[in-house]
Amino acid sequence: MSAENTDVRDRYWHKTRNLTILVLALWAFFSLVIPAMVGTLDNVTFLGFPLGFYMIAQGSLIAFVLIIWFQNWRQDAIDDEFGFGDEQ
Q: For the segment 50-68, what is each residue's pLDDT rounded down to a tens digit?
């Protein structure tokens, strides 16, 4: 394998790793930090519900779907940038 291919592969995995770390950090925030703050968040209401209840019941689920969409969108862009995309 040439040095150029190794450099491209290393940059590809560097970007993929950073994306994975970001996605895991967001997941940890919405699955661990928000539930830990539910008591504080309940002092605020959103759509007539305590914010802590809303974030546990609906907000985290919406966040997870958005995180999945974002990860897929960015990984497709990374794949296309390095020539690994489906549209070749």
A: 988 888 888 889 999 999 9
